[in-house]
Specification:
alpha/beta; TIM Barrel; three-stranded antiparallel β-sheet; 12 helices; 15 strands; 16% strand; binds N-carbamoyl-L-aspartate; binds zinc ion; Metal_Hydrolase; metal-binding
Length: 350
């Protein structure tokens, strides 16, 4: 690769952490991801959540039915782990090709997590079975104790909860989703070489820090969970993502909410990045002078961790610039505001 390429062809990326929602929202946002990606790990935090293999099969059919004609995009389905989840159903779902992974939300940690896990002991039989049949555990890694400062909840989870899971289930593959801290980077570096721990990193956590949320006034569209941390953490995430190390990979956590639900006295957590996900990551790798490592992060490391082949086709990016789309209409009554809406990015998908 030349030092300052104007054009870049890489294997088609996958998104290992995506919220597609359902109904009109799904129909509006899915074309964005389907245009860029080969596959995506689809998060199960619907209302009600996607708990069983039968529910995941119904949800997958809805997604496939909402795809633009001719799209080869493949949704990879996840189970929402609850205290009452049946290990046999997880195993059957895995064997039937329905489940790719299982998502654990500590109860009340984030958007639509009320049915999440209250006690690790209760899900131990599920985690044992997942290790046995090869279903990775994807974790929203924040403690829910409201006495713990919101900016510390990820680091405390890594310190106190993650070791319990790892020690009790040493053969379980774990993905720490959307890491936001230097502590997250360090623990994944430490245990990544065992093949049992990896992390997704979002585009927005590579671009914003906690001051961004208050720049000139409160900016509800930059509120997500885990919340963005100090600048030192953003820099640690950028270094990790662009390091080429195989345990860090693409996961947007693109999480659309209607504008009215964001611009509210009690606004929802979630940032919508799917409209320009690949362009946002490319911008970061270019700024870091690491475009030669973009493909590993976007298209190779994720499939390798999930024991899947990389996509067989490619995408091409051009350094001709792009204006991030403005408000995305959902159903004539509600709309979503994409991250960096109306701003210029350096790269665009050809
Ligand atoms: N990331 C977020 O801020 N929100 C996600 C939930 C999640 O991934 O934690 C959502 O579903 O809106
Ligand atoms: Zn989450
Ligand atoms: Zn998420």
């Amino acid at each position: 690769m030349t030092q300052h390429p104007q054009r870049l062809t890489i294997r088609r990326p996958d998104d290992w952490h995506l919220h597609l929602r359902t109904g009109a929202m799904l129909r509006a946002v899915l074309p964005h991801s389907a245009a860029q990606l080969g596959r995506a790990i689809v998060m199960p935090n619907l209302v009600p959540p996607v708990i069983t293999a039968a529910q995941a099969e119904t949800y997958r059919a809805e997604i496939l039915g909402a795809l633009p004609a001719g799209s080869r995009f493949q949704p990879l389905m996840t189970a929402y782990l609850t205290d009452g989840t049946d290990p046999d159903d997880l195993e059957a779902g895995k064997k039937a090709g329905i489940f790719t992974a299982v998502k654990m939300y500590p109860a009340h940690a984030t958007t639509n997590s009320a049915h999440g896990v209250t006690d690790l002991e209760k899900v131990a039989p599920c985690l044992d079975r997942m290790a046995k049949v090869g279903l990775p555990l994807l974790v929203h890694g924040e403690v829910t104790d409201q006495k713990v400062d919101i900016f510390d909840r990820e680091a405390v989870f890594i310190d106190t909860v993650l070791p319990k899971i790892r020690n009790r289930h040493p053969d379980l593959k774990i993905v720490l989703e959307h890491i936001t801290t230097a502590e997250g980077v360090a623990v994944v570096r430490k245990y990544g070489p065992t093949g049992k721990l990896a992390a997704t990193i979002t585009a927005h956590h590579l671009m914003i820090n906690r001051s961004s949320i208050f720049a000139g006034g409160i900016r509800p569209h930059l509120y997500c969970l885990p919340i963005a941390k100090r600048e030192t953490h953003r820099l640690a995430l950028r270094e990790a993502a662009t390091s080429g190390e195989p345990w860090f990979f693409f996961g947007t956590d693109s999480a659309p909410h209607p504008i009215g639900a964001k611009e509210s006295a009690c606004g929802c957590a979630g940032i919508y990045t799917a409209a320009t996900a690949v362009e946002l990551y490319t911008q970061v790798f270019d700024e870091e002078g690491k475009l030669d490592r973009l493909e590993a992060f976007t298209s190779l490391n994720g499939p390798a961790y999930y024991d899947l082949p990389p996509n067989d086709d490619t995408i091409t990016l051009e350094k001709s610039g792009l204006t991030v789309p403005d408000i995305l209409d959902i159903d004539g009554k509600t709309a979503v505001l994409p991250f960096r809406s109306g701003e210029r990015l350096d790269w665009r998908l050809v």
